[in-house]
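Known limitations

Files may contain more than one protein. Parsers should not assume a single record per file. Below, a two-record file is shown to illustrate correct handling: read the sequence, read the token line, then continue until end of file.
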Amino acid sequence: MKHKRFETLELKSRRGFTLIELLVVIAIIAVLIALLLPAVQQAREAARRTQCKNNLKQIGLAVHNFHDVRNGLPPYMIGDGFLSFWGILLPYLDQAPLYNQINLGVAVTDTSTSPVNNNTLLIQGANASLPAYHCPSRRAADLKLGGGMPGPTGDYAVVIWYADDGNGTQQGTNAYNNWWNLHGMSSDQNLFSAIRTSTSVNPATSQRVFNSSAYGSNGWAPRDTFAFMTDGTTNVIIVGEKHIHQTEIGKCCGSGNNQDGGIYYQQNNWGEYTVGRQVRTVTPLVPNKSFTDNADSQTAFGSWHDGIAQFLMGDGSVRAISNNIDVNLFRNLGNCRDGNVVGEF
């Protein structure tokens, strides 16, 4: 027969946690999770930022490979409604099968042919939307269906430096209509020009000539080489992350949204900003996910990374540029031949 004292000790040794002890343990675990979660999120964002940087590096390699193969730089686009810079680069991003289905003589938006031309694959085919054109901090590969500028979307933009309207008139910071048809194509500041064709080449001058009658022609060729970048390839930004507010994903085109349409072609007013963005803005880089309903921010650069946006330089390197960069310095970086000395940034 067990002694009563030993029975009491045995019973005490078998008891579990009290409610208070359980709550304390839960509270400690919650605190540890709260401390660990930001670190996990930062690690994930660091990985996404690295992937975004790698995307820009791949784009840079594609630009340089195009230059080596075609003896010139890829054009901004080959005509209103026809293939843009981003479509032209497809073969140099291991997307030759997709590119080979495109009929360069037919506008992407042309549905009058019977059967419908193969270019509608760029609008309707989800396989045409490339992860390499998307920053993972913002989204995965995406496709915009219906409305203005449908097709594969993208989070990177060609750098545009507005100079004049073709008649020598200096533009303000909010010059943003029909870039393909006005001053952009004759601007000496833009690295990626319009196409040149056999009927529009003027070797006697440095003025860029754009022959609108050659839209969609298979006879187009690059207009300029890297030699056009007289400021040096290490001192010029050529592609960067474009600002798109989180509430504007999938919207395009016109006032009141941030130009998130298809990037494989450019069409009509505002359509150029699905392909490129301007550096002549009042606020050089729009802060993370911020929104201001004005044309200046809607056509600007900016990322979903905290405090910075990443840019591809002419030499193929990628730089993270602070949102607080000086306005004039940012413009100088976007002008490929102004002769200004670029300091630290």
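...continuing to the second record:
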Amino acid sequence: MILKKRILVAPLNWGLGHATRCIPLINALLINDFQPVIASDGIALALLQKEFPHLESIELPSYQVKYAKKGQFFKLKMLQNSPKFIKAINAEKKATSAIIKTYHINGIISDNRLGVYSKHIPSVFITHQLKVLSGNTTWLSTKMHQKIIKRFDECWVPDNIGEDNLSGDLGHIDVFGIQIKYIGPLSRFEKKECDSKYDLMILLSGPEPQRSILEKLLFEELKLYEGRVLFVRGVIEDVSKKIKKGPIDVYNFMASEALEKALNESKLVLSRSGYTTIMDLAKLHKRAFFIPTPGQFEQEYLAERLSNIGFAPSCKQSEFSIDQLNAVETYEGLKTTNYKTNYKKLFSLFQSE
């Protein structure tokens, strides 16, 4: 009997995006006769445990990500948190070495977890940020990020390589010394033809306190909205719960199958401009309105880019009002090519002895 190669899949716990875009990868590993082992922390780990209750899962040290209450202090808050990050990365390295031995790991897929790699087994880093925006220190943050990526055997960028890409300058720059593979946009969803149930779906996620700040703002603005609304708060708890808040259907979170159905049934989606959300909405050809997390340069860039190319409008969180949703009608909506990832070829890295 040939034992299946065991692949550690470790997404960063920074909102839900890194975890959700690992779902299609985990499914592809299972289809291609590998044995995935999940490793993360916080809500990212909780989400994947709910999606794959039959798989082994391990808790990793937390980066303890927390955003500033005001966007202009975002970079300062990240700098203040840097000792925590370094401590967590060092703890990750030790944990990874122990996990490889204890769980007999044959390969690693790390989605932005900087310390989850090994010199002794094939290690892959997933990122859409070959260029890391940080204002006037972009050159430095990019150089530091690329230095870390070089410790991995390959870097997988979840995007198309051509002009029909979603990440723009973030994922498409010349990099020396990194084995880059463009694997196409990753989404756990499929587009389905169905009747519309909701005029507006709000999809929240991301670290606190900004998630809660936007939630409060949106509930206030929705008092002036007359359409049918589904509000998914992005709060992972033991069970998915629905409550009625006036005319609004409110869920704490939705598992993949229910979320896919709800997205397909919604005419318009309002969300953060996180890259995973953009990939999902492009796969479903949705009309969208984006409110980037204040001070997060990457989300601000992506929102502005999608607006400039005519796909979706956006605005600053402090400037949002519900009537701005009317602008969506003048935009094309999100879309992507039907790129089919060759997972057998992609995973061949893990077949080497």
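Parsers that stop after the first record will miss the second one. For reference, the second record is described as follows. The domain at 200-330 is CATH 3.40.50.2000 (Rossmann fold).
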